[in-house]
Amino acid sequence: MNQEKLNKIRVFVAKYKDADLHSLLLKKSPFPEVSMQELVQQIKGRKVAEKKFPFLNQENIIFPPNLNLEQASSQDTADFKKQFFKGKKFIDLTCGFGIDAYFLSQNFEEITLIEQNTELLDIVKHNWEVLGRKANFINQKLEDFLKNNKEHFDLIYLDPARRDNHNRKVFLLEDLSPNIIEIQEQLSDISPEILIKLSPLIDIQHLVSSLKNIYKIWIIAVKNEVKEVLVYLKKTENQPEISCINLQSSEPEFHFNLDDEKNCQSEFSTPKKYIYIPNNSVLKSGAFNLVSEKFGLKKLHQNTHIYTSEEKIEHFPGRIFETEEINSKAIKKGEQFNIITKNFPLKPEEIKKKYKIKDGGNQYLIAVKSLSGNHFLVGKLLD
Asked: Please, what are the averages of pLDDT over each run of 10 residues along the chain (383 residues)?
C-alpha cells in the first residue's frame, strides 16, 4: 500500500475513531481510491488492537476484515508461546493475520509464512515491513506447498481452520482443514518439531488417542477463559505432559502427566471451612483426582469439581473461598451475593429469583452438591 493512501487512512481514522460506524458506512468515502468500508474496517481494527494486540496499535498498521481479527491469537497467548522454541528455520503453514508467527519466530533466523488468502498475506507483509521484521512470504495453499517443498525446518506451526465448507464450526481433528491426522507423517518428514493450535473445545482424550508423538499439551486460559489448546509433537516414548496456564492472573501453573491422573483417587467430604475451585484450564484438563491428591484436598462429589479443607493451603491454581454453611431459610430478601452453582439443582438465576436476592457485592453464595446432599455456603474470596 502506497504512503499517500496510508496517510489518508491514518488521518481519517484519527478524526473518526469515536464516531458511530453505522452512520459512517452510509456516507461516501472522501477518497476515490479507498472505500468507506475499508476506512471503517481500519477504525474497527484499531479498536480491537487496543485490547487484543496492542503492539499493532501504531501508525501505518493495516487491519484485515473482522473474521481474521477474531481468529487471530491475542498478543498474550502468542507472547507466551515464544519462550519455548528457538532454532534456525521456522515456518507457519497457516499464517492468517500473523500474530503467532510474529512472536514465535523471534527466536529463529529464517522465517517462512504460508497463506492462501492473497489480500491477507499482503496486509501481513506490509505490517511486518512497518515493524521491521523480515520473512519469506508465500501465497499458496498449504497442501500445494507441502507437495513441492524440499526444505527442512526446525519448527512447523499451524492453526487449522475450524469451519467446514458450510461455515459450520467443527471440533474433531479429522474435520479440521488441513486434516492433521492425515498430514502428520508428511509434516514429520520436514521437521522434528510441530506445534499445533487447536480449539479450546477439543477433547483432550480424543487428542491423545488420535495423534502420535505428543510431547506436551498446553491448555491456555486468559483471565480464566480457556482460549486455546496447544499440542507440541516431538518423538518421545513418554506420556505427554499437560500444562494448565491461566494468563493475566497470579495463579500458579499446574503440570502433570496423563498417567498421574489415572493412578489417583479422590477422597470425599462435606464442605469444610475452605472451598477451592480450580481455574478453567485445570478443569479442561480433566485432572480431577490429581488435584485432590496433589494438594491434599477432599472432593465434594464425583461430579462436583470443587474441593475443601479445614486448613488453608497455598499456591492453588484457582480461587479459594473462606466459607460457612447456612440454612437456606437464613438467606434474607434483598441480600447481595455473587452466586456460584456446581452440580446443583438450581441455576444462579433461579436461586436469585427464588430467594429474592441481588447480584454483586463482596459476598459469595456457593450452592453445591456433596455426597451427603445439597449445601448453601456463604463466604468471601481470598487473595
From this structure: 72 83 87 86 93 93 93 96 97 97 97 96 95 97 94 97 71 85 94 96 92 96 97 90 97 93 92 98 96 96 96 97 95 94 95 94 95 96 92
As to burial, measured by CB atoms within 10 angstroms (0-12 exposed, 13-18 middle, 19+ buried), residue 311 is exposed
Q: What stretch of H or E contains 194? A: strand 194-198
Buried b (16+ CB within 10 A) or exposed e, 212-227: ebbbbbbbbbbebebb
Handedness of CA 280, 282, 285, 288 (dihedral sign): negative
Name 109's Cβ contacts closer than 8 Å, sequence gap at least 6: 88, 89
Whole-number Å distance between alpha carbons of 51 and 225 = 15
Q: Sort strands 304-309 and 298-301 into parallel, antiparallel or unpaired.
A: antiparallel
Q: How many CB atoms lie within 10 A of CB 165?
A: 6
Cα separation, 252 vs 249, whole angstroms: 8
Q: Is the separation of the CB atoms in 297 and 276 below 8 Å?
A: yes
Distance CA 53, CA 23 (A): 27
**Euclidean distance between CA atoms 342 and 206, whole angstroms:** 25
